[in-house]
Automatic annotation (TrEMBL):
TM regions (residue ranges): 50-70, 76-94, 101-119, 131-153
Keywords, ordered alphabetically: Membrane, Transmembrane, Transmembrane helix
Ranges for region Disordered: 1-23
Name under which the protein is recorded: Integral membrane protein
C-alpha cells in the first residue's frame, strides 16, 4: 500500500510525482509550445520580413507626424482621425506580419516620435503639442490602441477563442 502511494513501486506514478520523467522533451513544453508559429520569436527572419519591419518603422514615424498635425487642426474629428490612423497602422502591422513585432515596431517608432515632438520646446515658443486635453488624449489613446492591438496579436498566437470564459 505504501509503495503505491509513494509512486516508487509497481511502475505506477502519481500525478504529482511524474516530474520530468514522463517522456516529455525538454524545451518543447511551456511557453515555447504555447507561442505557436504566429509569435515574433519563432517566425523566421527573412529578407522580406525585415523589409516589412523597415516599412512599418517608417510608417510609424509618418503616422505620428500626421496625427500630431491632424489632432490639433480639427477639434474633435482630428483626434478621432489621428487615433483611427494609429489603430489602422498597428492592426495592419499585425495582419501583414502575423507576429507581435508587427505592433511593436511601428508602436515604438510612433511612441518615440510623439515623445520627441512633445519634448521639443524651442526658444521662440513654437511647439506642435499644445498643453490641451486633445494632445494628452492623442498620446494616451495611441498607447492604449497599441496595447489593444498587441493583445489581439497575442490572443491569435495562443489560439484563444472569442467569447465568454467557460461558456
Amino acid at each position: 500500500m505504501s509503495a503505491a502511494k509513494g509512486g516508487s513501486g509497481g511502475g505506477r506514478r502519481s500525478r504529482a510525482g511524474s516530474g520530468g520523467a514522463s517522456g516529455a522533451r525538454p524545451g518543447v513544453g511551456g511557453a515555447a509550445a504555447a507561442a505557436g508559429p504566429a509569435s515574433g520569436l519563432s517566425a523566421p527572419l527573412t529578407l522580406g520580413r525585415i523589409g516589412m519591419y523597415v516599412l512599418l518603422l517608417v510608417a510609424g514615424v509618418l503616422v505620428a507626424l500626421a496625427g500630431t498635425l491632424v489632432q490639433g487642426a480639427w477639434s474633435p474629428g482630428g483626434l478621432l482621425l489621428a487615433l483611427a490612423g494609429t489603430g489602422g497602422l498597428f492592426y495592419g502591422g499585425v495582419t501583414a506580419t502575423r507576429t507581435a513585432a508587427g505592433v511593436l515596431v511601428p508602436g515604438a517608432a510612433w511612441l518615440v516620435t510623439v515623445f520627441l515632438l512633445v519634448s521639443d520646446a524651442r526658444p521662440e515658443g513654437d511647439f506642435l503639442f499644445p498643453a490641451a486635453l486633445g494632445s494628452y488624449l492623442f498620446l494616451c489613446g495611441g498607447i492604449v490602441v497599441g496595447v489593444i492591438c498587441a493583445t489581439v496579436a497575442q490572443m491569435r498566437a495562443t489560439g484563444a477563442t472569442r467569447g465568454r470564459v467557460g461558456g
